[in-house]
Amino acid sequence: MEDRKVINPTEARQATPQRLNYRVLTRSMLIALVAAAVVYAYFYMQTPV
Question: What is the pTM of this model?
Answer without folding.
Answer: 0.61
